[in-house]
């Protein structure tokens, strides 16, 4: 017997006999859902909006937030963000009808996102308070590269689309036709590969700015 066979035989002996008991597996799986609160982390606030904001603005997620009363205030919020950073009012606008319908007077607007795009404005499908994540589904109105190419990614998120936990997103899409691509974006792009220091903008936007519309 080779050394490999000896090791594998010892592993099998330690594991003991294994039988696939489908009923037991279903019972064990159901038991995990009996008390989900015991396995879920506590949110950072009682309000879903406040919990999302608290999480997405933590240093590890490294995003910024603005709140507006209505979605039609988004252009003004984008202008505030760009002006505060000395950036020109030029944006790549996600080709979503809800965004195109807004008044972008005074902006240079284009649809395609260039590899060196400075700022892009998008629309998130959901937000997840537990992780501070934004959910995007690829479709004709949501090109995937819009989430990864710009230096500054500004995203409109409606308060009513904020979910508490990741599994709530799974339930929200259960039974629906799946998208070709789903992206869960949690903060600005970052890496700690070099000397354990956080470097932003490593493989995506260096800055993520979430604009939350109450209505």
User: Into how many domains do the coordinates divide?
Assistant: 1
Main β-sheet, spatial strand arrangement: 1-12-7-4-2-3
Number of helices: 6
- Overall residue-averaged pLDDT value: 90
* Oligomer state of the chains in this structure: single chain
Poorly predicted runs = none
What proportion of the residues is helical, as a percent range?
A: 25-40%
Class by alpha and beta content: alpha/beta
Instruction: Quote the distance from N terminus to C terminus.
Output: 70 Å
Radius of gyration: 22 Å
CATH architectural type:
3-Layer(aba) Sandwich
Question: Mind summarizing the main beta sheet?
Answer: 6 strands, parallel
* Number of DSSP E strands: 12
Report the top-level CATH class: Alpha Beta
């Amino acid at each position: 017997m080779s050394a490999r066979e000896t090791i594998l035989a010892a592993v099998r002996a330690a594991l003991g006999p294994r039988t696939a008991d489908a009923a037991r597996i279903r019972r064990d799986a159901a038991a995990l859902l009996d008390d989900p609160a015991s396995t879920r982390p506590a949110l950072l606030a009682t309000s879903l909006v406040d919990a999302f904001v608290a999480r997405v603005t933590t240093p590890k997620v490294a995003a910024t937030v603005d709140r507006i009363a209505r979605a039609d205030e988004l252009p003004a919020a984008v202008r505030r963000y760009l002006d505060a950073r000395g950036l020109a009012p030029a944006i790549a606008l996600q080709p979503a009808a809800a965004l195109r319908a807004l008044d972008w007077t005074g902006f240079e607007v284009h649809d395609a996102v260039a590899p060196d795009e400075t700022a892009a404005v998008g629309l998130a499908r959901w937000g997840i308070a537990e992780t501070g994540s934004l959910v995007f589904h690829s479709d004709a109105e949501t090109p995937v590269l819009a989430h990864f190419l710009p230096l500054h990614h500004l995203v409109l998120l409606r308060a009513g689309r904020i979910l508490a936990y990741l599994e709530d997103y799974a339930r929200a899409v259960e039974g629906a036709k799946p998208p070709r691509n789903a992206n869960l974006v949690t903060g600005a792009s970052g890496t700690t590969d070099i000397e354990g220091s956080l470097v932003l903008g490593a493989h995506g936007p260096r800055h993520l700015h979430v604009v939350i519309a109450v209505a």
